[in-house]
């Protein structure tokens, strides 16, 4: 039936691959789907998608993903009608023109010298120019139609993954239409409250180190450079250590931090010094605990008295996350104003990130989390990574032997053309310097990818050894 829709694919099925359809390569199947869907939906550009499966199941999996994206785009067009809806998916910094934001228009028309509203940042910005990029050259254009990509000049706040519309009123109107559809189709209204386009999913950083300028005179220049790089790369996090005053650079891996270090030197002309690379461990509790605290304080002429009761419980059976899930008792949620809910949730989230025993200020909830009144045994969590190695048959045994020494757990070994793909999980602490070792073992022919999978609790012996190393006792 699929061959009836495309003549080129029909020739492959009837000719070269008539005996075994599973031999059809992934590239040919991808091109087939692109041609068929392009003819059906008349789209100029389809979103990129990643092939994660092989064999005959590729057709079904790929069709499901693409059709799901197309359905979402069609719903967006219905909700926004002829109003602008675009996605900012990349940011570059030009020394002369400032930040250049790559946008793709999904509905409506984008014109220069027009004001646009950023839903993610809740702010209005004015775009001065529209440029069509051709390699290292840009041509100014008068407008941008749906399905096209261009560079915008003048957007000071927009970052990677932000949704851009014509105005706040347009976003509210689209949300109202989506809400009506949600009630008619049994869809969740919380999912369509703010109609954001799917941006980039950014996992938590797993590596961090200190970064210092050559002198305090260069500190402001370094802060500006890091601010620009964070806007270009959402996976890069920068924070200030409140105890030492040092700038902490958080990234997704050794190579990621090395590239950031090189870009600061090459693009901004700042020589920086990196501290030793550290792993971002997490803490959790092993059992539930409760605490009650009373705040009685006079502010001006008014006396404020608040009693708060807090219970913390470990989350089991779910992927470990930095942000806690906050629930209110039924008697509290009715009486607590929405603006105070934001302060409570802020306090709990910040205290969980900083850890137990930190000095976290005067907010009652912060005092509750950081006080010793919540007595629960703590357990340190080690980042567990999904590892995928693409290696030739000749070097497969060497790569597997090295993986076993790193406490890796092999999930499966797939075939991809003439290579083997090893899928495994491995503790991040064992992956320091792995890129150099793998290149040596395979004569530079193998490649690998790492992705955060979850956090694994250390046993008491490993936890004690880690704490002793951190305190300098070992």
TrEMBL record:
Stored CDD domains: EFG_III, EFG_mtEFG_C, mtEFG2_II_like
A GO CC term attached to the entry: mitochondrion
Entry GO MF terms: GTP binding; GTPase activity
SUPFAM superfamilies assigned to the protein according to its UniProt record, in alphabetical order: EF-G C-terminal domain-like, Ribosomal protein S5 domain 2-like, Translation proteins
InterPro entries: EF-G-like_DII, EFG_II, EFG_III, EFG_III/V, EFG_V, EFG_V-like, Ribosomal_Su5_D2-typ_SF, Transl_B-barrel_sf
Domain Elongation factor EFG, residue spans: 379-466
The entry's keywords: GTP-binding, Nucleotide-binding, Protein biosynthesis
GO BP term, example: ribosome disassembly
Protein's name according to its UniProt entry: RRF2M factor
């Amino acid at each position: 039936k699929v061959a009836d829709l495309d003549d080129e694919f029909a020739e492959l099925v009837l000719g070269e691959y008539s005996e075994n359809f599973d031999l059809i390569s992934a590239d040919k199947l991808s091109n087939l789907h692109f041609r068929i869907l392009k003819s059906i939906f008349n789209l100029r550009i389809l979103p990129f998608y990643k092939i994660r499966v092989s064999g005959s199941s590729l057709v079904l999996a790929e069709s499901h993903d693409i059709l799901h994206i197309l359905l979402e785009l069609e719903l967006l067009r219905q909700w926004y009608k002829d109003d602008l809806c675009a996605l900012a998916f990349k940011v570059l910094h030009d020394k002369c023109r400032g930040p250049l934001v790559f946008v793709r228009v999904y509905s409506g028309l984008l014109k220069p010298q027009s004001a646009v509203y950023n839903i993610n940042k809740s702010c209005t910005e004015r775009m001065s120019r529209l440029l069509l990029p051709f390699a290292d050259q840009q041509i100014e254009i008068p407008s941008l139609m749906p399905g096209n990509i261009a560079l915008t000049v003048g957007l000071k706040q927009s970052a990677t993954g932000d949704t851009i519309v014509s105005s706040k009123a347009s976003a509210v109107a689209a949300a109202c239409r989506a809400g009506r559809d949600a009630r008619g189709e049994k869809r969740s209204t919380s999912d369509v409250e703010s109609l954001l386009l799917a941006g980039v999913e950014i996992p938590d950083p797993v590596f961090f180190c200190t970064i210092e300028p050559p002198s305090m005179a260069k500190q402001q220049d370094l802060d500006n450079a890091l601010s620009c790089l964070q806007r270009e790369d959402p996976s890069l996090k920068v924070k200030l250590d409140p105890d030492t005053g040092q700038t902490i650079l958080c990234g997704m891996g050794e190579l990621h931090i090395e590239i950031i270090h090189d870009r600061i030197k090459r693009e901004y002309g700042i020589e920086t010094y990196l501290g030793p690379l550290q792993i971002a461990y997490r803490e959790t509790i092993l059992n539930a605990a409760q605490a009650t605290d009373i705040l009685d304080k006079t502010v001006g002429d008014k006396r404020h008295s608040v009693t708060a009761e807090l219970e913390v419980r470990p989350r089991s059976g779910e992927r470990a996350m930095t942000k806690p899930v906050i629930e209110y008792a039924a008697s509290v949620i009715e009486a607590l104003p929405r603006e105070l809910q934001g302060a409570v949730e802020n306090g709990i989230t910040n205290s969980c990130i900083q850890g137990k025993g930190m000095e976290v200020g005067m907010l009652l909830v912060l005092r509750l989390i950081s006080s010793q009144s919540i007595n629960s045994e703590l357990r340190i969590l080690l980042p567990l990574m999904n590892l995928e190695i693409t290696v030739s048959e000749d070097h497969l045994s060497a790569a597997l032997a090295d993986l076993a020494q790193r406490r890796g757990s092999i999930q499966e070994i797939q075939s991809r053309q003439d290579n083997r793909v090893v899928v495994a999980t491995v503790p991040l602490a064992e992956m320091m310097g792995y890129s150099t070792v793998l290149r040596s073992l395979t004569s530079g022919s193998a490649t690998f990818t790492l992705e955060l999978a979850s956090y694994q609790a250390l046993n008491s012996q490993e936890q004690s050894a880690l704490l002793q190393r951190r305190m300098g006792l070992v």
